[in-house]
Amino acid sequence: MNESDRSVETVNTDKNVEIAVEKDKKYFACDICGKKFCEKQFLKKHIHIHKKEKLHSCAVCEKRFSQRCDLFVHLRTHTNEKPYSCDVCQKDFSHKGSLNEHLRTHTNERPFSCDVCQKDFSYKSSFNRHIRTHTNEKPFSCDVCRKGFSLKSHLNVHLRTHTNEKPYSCDVCHKDFSRKSHLNVHYRTYGKPNHGAAEIVATPL
Predict the structure, then answer these.
(1) What is the DSSP pairing of strand 84-85 with strand 64-65?
(2) How confident is the model over 117-174, as pLDDT tens digits?
(3) Based on CB atoms within 10 Å of each CB, which residue in 54, 143, 149, 161 is the most buried?
(4) Which residues make up the CATH 3.30.160.60 domain(s) of the chain?
(5) 175-186 burial, b if ≥16 CB within 10 A, otherwise e?
(6) Closest CA to 62 of 74, 50, 45
(7) E strands along the chain, which residues?
């Protein structure tokens, strides 16, 4: 076969690599999004994304994943394996993406920029949270009263108004609070903000 009998196309595999494909070779196309694959096994793997089939299960916590590689990454949360290390401060990470994000703390790189106010961010998650301040999007909703929140952490705090959970306790009088900020305000009644019993006992009378 000479060079004219072959063509090179970018095929949408998970690895996103260029594969040499014969002109008359049969493609396997996704009925949902139309993406084409040179091998049927790649199509089957891709279909799981649409079907959200989670065929791979964690033997420890039974959490399921659609991709086997995602399961392997998840297992590190149980083994505490951290194969990616920062060359600057030697801090270790279980995910390569986490290492890449961490490196920006050393380089001060901020690749995510807000089109509205031009504020820059090092992390995409921080950027996404910031965007909601402009759009007023509230994707996190309370199942009890349907109140919406822009941040999941705000929803978690709100849920305590329904459950009466008070996870923050005063070291001095053992009074409980639903919010850490309320506990800090309470500590000021002892004359030392944000401090516990050990420091208060040491205060001269």
Answers:
(1) unpaired
(2) 999 998 888 899 899 989 999 999 999 999 999 888 899 999 999 999 999 999 999 9
(3) 149
(4) 37-75, 82-135, 138-191
(5) eebbeeeebeeb
(6) 74
(7) 6-10, 18-22, 28-29, 36-37, 56-57, 64-65, 84-85, 92-93, 112-113, 120-121, 140-141, 148-149, 168-169, 176-177
Spatial contact of 85 and 91, defined as CB atoms under 8 Å apart: yes
Q: What is the pLDDT of residues 53-96, one digit of tens each?
A: 777 899 999 898 877 888 888 999 899 999 999 999 999 998 88
CATH of domain 138-191: 3.30.160.60
Nearest Cα to 10, choosing from 29, 31, 46, 38? Answer: 38
Give the global pTM. Answer: 0.46
Residue 98: helix, strand or coil by DSSP? helix
CATH fold of 82-135, please?
Double Stranded RNA Binding Domain (3.30.160)
Check: CB of residue 50 under 8 Å from CB of residue 33: yes
Decide which of 3.30.420.240, 3.30.70.20, 3.30.160.60, 3.90.1010.10 is the CATH code for 37-75: 3.30.160.60
Which residue, 184, 178, 153, 151, is CA-closest to 164? 178
Q: Which of 44, 35, 34 is nearest to 16 (CA)?
A: 35
